[in-house]
Design goal:
Belongs to the class-II pyridoxal-phosphate-dependent aminotransferase family. Histidinol-phosphate aminotransferase subfamily. The radius of gyration is 21 Å and the shape is globular. The chain has two domains: about 15-45 and about 275-370, Alpha-Beta Complex (Aspartate Aminotransferase, domain 1), CATH 3.90.1150; about 50-275, Aspartate Aminotransferase, domain 2. α4 (about 95-105) crosses α9 (about 245-255). It has helices at about 25-30, 50-60, 70-80, 95-105, 120-130, 145-155, 175-185, 210-215, 245-255, 265-275, 275-300, 320-330, 355-370, and strands at about 35-40, 90, 110-115, 135-140, 160-165, 190-195, 220-225, 240-245, 305, 310-315, 330-335, 335, 345-350. It is about 40% helix and about 15% strand. α5 links the parallel β3 (about 110-115) and β4. The strands form three sheets. Strands 2-8-7-6-5-3-4 form a seven-stranded mixed beta sheet, with helices on both faces. A four-stranded antiparallel beta sheet has the order 9-10-13-12.
Length: about 375
């Protein structure tokens, strides 16, 4: 029987299914039951704390009840730690859910969205889903953020300026001075959204979280955060945002689904905030492994971009899709980048030391093999 035809919105035509990466189960047969190094999704490889596990178990006891639609306890905790008013926060099913909510709140066909490139694909996809046009600010030839081009674009009355800081996948970042220049250049008719999914990893004197400017900035600003990375709660899907605009928060609350953050995720996030030492230990270990991997990859003659995330963006000098597929035979999962101009790059997460060594050893063998 032929499947019935459904006419879809024309804005969906250029979209492609998001490359969510491979699961452990999908790779198990390829590597013959050996260990799998899952380094393709920028996950935190460290176990969650016993306190978080206990909070999750307790939350399950009332699974028959709807969760708090405002994530009130969690919002008050974050407000206490950041100084941002509860009324200026919004929560979502991961920060990528909030990207979707933002697009549906703001964008109409013909609107312009400015983003850095290479980009987190959903930054572009959600804009295109709403019929908006995407303007890419590409890296310079020597793999730096083109700050002059970004400032020029931001000065125009575009609908939305959306970028990750640190960047995903490139790992690059705006310095505190460059971020201040961007905020100053922002046109008053534009919304600036800074996706800070990797902010906990962004250690160093030339990086500053955007919350420093939130209170006094006089143009619409939205800052997105997540518990999926440094806090290790990727499977639970919980993210949040801050804004200085009551209009924007109000509009996003109208668009989001009413119970978009489940009770187990709320409880886990609240408990994770009470374990800052656990988070800091995981961040410190991941950054040490990231730097070890960067040095080893550079020694192999590969181009490795500087990174303030828990991952590296690496030009392997050959088709990344084929290389990533060959790595699966060694039980190693990395993410081959498929955006135009970056088809020779892989993005690899910093896992546990044995996983990273497994990756480096497998890659070294492959690069020495003929025919690749």
């Amino acid at each position: 029987m032929t499947a019935p035809h459904v006419k879809l919105r024309p804005e969906l035509a250029p979209l492609r299914t998001y490359n969510a990466g491979l699961s452990l189960e999908a790779v198990a047969d390829r590597c013959g039951g050996g260990p799998i190094a899952k380094l393709g999704s920028n996950e935190n490889p460290h176990e969650i704390s016993p306190q978080v596990k206990a909070a999750m178990a307790q939350a399950v006891e009332t699974a028959f009840l709807y969760p708090d639609p405002t994530a009130g306890r969690l919002a008050r905790k974050i407000s206490h730690e950041t100084g941002v008013a509860v009324e200026r926060m919004i929560f979502g099913d991961g920060s990528e859910d909030l990207l979707n909510v933002l697009a549906r709140t703001l964008l109409q066909p013909g609107d312009e969205v400015v983003t850095l490139y290479p980009s987190f694909p959903l930054h572009e996809d959600y804009a295109q889903m709403m019929g908006a046009a995407v303007t890419r600010i590409e890296l310079t030839h020597d793999h730096r953020i083109d700050i002059d081009a970004l400032l020029a674009a931001a000065a125009r009355p575009v609908r939305l300026i959306l970028l990750a800081n640190p960047m995903n996948p490139a790992g690059l970042w705006l310095s505190a001075d460059d971020l201040a220049r961007l905020l100053a250049a922002q046109h008053p008719d534009s919304v600036l959204c800074l996706d800070e999914a990797y902010v906990e990893y962004a250690k160093g004197g030339d990086f500053e979280p955007a919350t420093r400017w939130l209170r006094d900035h006089d143009k619409p600003l939205l800052i997105l955060r997540t518990f999926s990375k440094a806090y290790g709660l990727a499977a639970l899907r919980i993210g949040y945002g801050f804004s200085n605009s009551d209009d924007l928060i109000g509009g996003m609350n109208l668009v989001r689904t009413p119970f978009n953050v489940n009770a187990v995720a709320q409880a886990a996030a609240l408990a994770a905030l009470d374990q800052p030492e656990h988070v800091e230990t995981g961040v410190r270990d991941s950054l040490a492994e990231r730097d070890r991997m960067a040095a080893a990859l550079s020694d192999l003659g590969l181009t490795v971009l500087p990174s303030k995330g828990n991952f590296l963006f690496v030009d392997c000098g050959r088709p990344a899709t084929e290389l990533a597929d060959r790595l699966l035979d060694a039980g190693v999962i990395v993410k081959p980048w498929k955006q135009e101009g970056y088809e020779s790059f892989i993005r690899v997460s910093a896992g546990l030391p044995p996983e990273n060594t497994q990756f480096l050893d497998a890659l070294t063998r492959l690069l020495a093999a003929p025919g690749l």
